[in-house]
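Re: the pair you flagged

First of the two:
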Amino acid sequence: STNKFIICQGSSIMQVASIADSVREYLQEQEGIKPYNYDGYQNAQWIVIDYGDVFVHVFLPDVREHYNLEELWSDAAITEVPDLD
């Protein structure tokens, strides 16, 4: 079962795909971890990467707002991480 969701967004489909690629590349190169599966690169509005107990969701802002996963899992503990820029 999934224990954590990581939710972030990019400002364009190119940025969404780049963020997802960076996550996959970093975890494989630094930790030797490959995802079990991933989906969403076809339109790159919402890419999900399945690491078993962790799912990484990378959204376009309007798609993130529409699906509102944070509200769907409102009983979960949420940790906000500030933008790095």
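Second of the two:
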Amino acid sequence: MAGDLRIGSAWTRTVSFRFDGETLTAREGETLAAALYAQGRRTLRISRDDSGPRGAFCFMGVCQECVVSIDGRLTEACRTPVHNGLVVESVR
């Protein structure tokens, strides 16, 4: 399914990263949100208000629904480029 959601072949290098302990791959240059979405990952965090799932919504850094934890810091997945060895945790 991952290849079905990516347009064109602009990226040639594949990188590996970890999301919630699972090793995934992405194309170099993709944002983390795009890479996760392309692999069918829709839930990136759980809302503190209603315990509902949250994920990428605007894909441009306005809504902050795609917040994840990288190295203990909260950051927006839609504004984070994927790189080899990146370790990401969902926010619960």
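Residues 13-89 form a domain with the Ubiquitin-like (UB roll) fold (CATH 3.10.20.440).

-B.
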